[in-house]
Amino acid sequence: MALAVLGRVWGRRGELIATSLSGGAERFAELEEVYLFGAPGAPGERHPVGLESVWEHRGALVFKFRGVDSISEAEPLEGAEVRIPAEARRKLPEGEYFQSDLIGCEVVEQASGERLGVVAGWQEYGGPPLLEVHGEGEPLLIPFARSICVEIDVAGRRIAVDLPEGLKELNAPARPKNRRGRE
Predict the structure, then answer these.
(1) Which long-range contacts (CB under 8 A, 24 or more apart) does 110-117 make?
(2) Which ranges in the chain are annotated with CATH 2.40.30.60?
(3) What does the pLDDT look like over 37-64, one tens digit per residue?
(4) What is the rounded distance in angstroms from the CA atom of residue 80 to the CA atom of residue 83?
(5) What are 159-173's pLDDT values in tens digits?
(6) Are 40 and 71 in contact (CB under 8 A)?
(7) Chain segment 1-11, per-residue pLDDT in tens
């Protein structure tokens, strides 16, 4: 499970700025080691990397790894994902879900049972996150809100939704207009 994505080197002691995917610095206080994936110098799952410290700086996180003590040692890690095994994830309160657990879930309309597709990703624009559902035709964007996603069964890989009237039409591709700009 990805917790953060490392950015550029920060400072001279081998720290790296990162974008968090799972909360603030306090989230990392309980972790002693992590796995780094996706960058040329990232060891992947071959061996864990010790986590020396994590702190916040101007809305971003700063990571310091054990054994990474200079700019030249940190640069190969730029762009790496900071991950932990699924079994090391913290327990969530009832009714909360990890985004990664919802990817691949089948989405159906609660009232009709119509299959809308499968959750393929997320989009965030400042409001509630949007489930990106791939099925027939264009992807359908569904707000991840309790009033819409009314039944979530992670173990059964299924999400039942009660779509607001007109939501499907909002997601439909625009029809081409004639030369006068009318449909």
Answers:
(1) 110/150, 110/151, 110/160, 110/161, 110/162, 111/162, 116/140, 116/142, 116/161
(2) 2-88
(3) 988 777 877 789 999 999 999 888 999 9
(4) 9
(5) 999 999 888 877 765
(6) no
(7) 788 899 999 99
Instruction: Give, in words, the CATH class of 2-88.
Output: mainly beta
Q: Choose between 72 and 96: higher pLDDT.
A: 72
CB 54 within 8 A of CB 12: no
* Residue 109 confidence (pLDDT) above 50: yes
Domain 99-171 = CATH 2.30.30.240: yes
pLDDT at 183: 44
Amino acid found at 141 = L
Cβ atoms of 130 and 124 closer than 8 Å: yes
Structural tokens at position 154: 């992670």
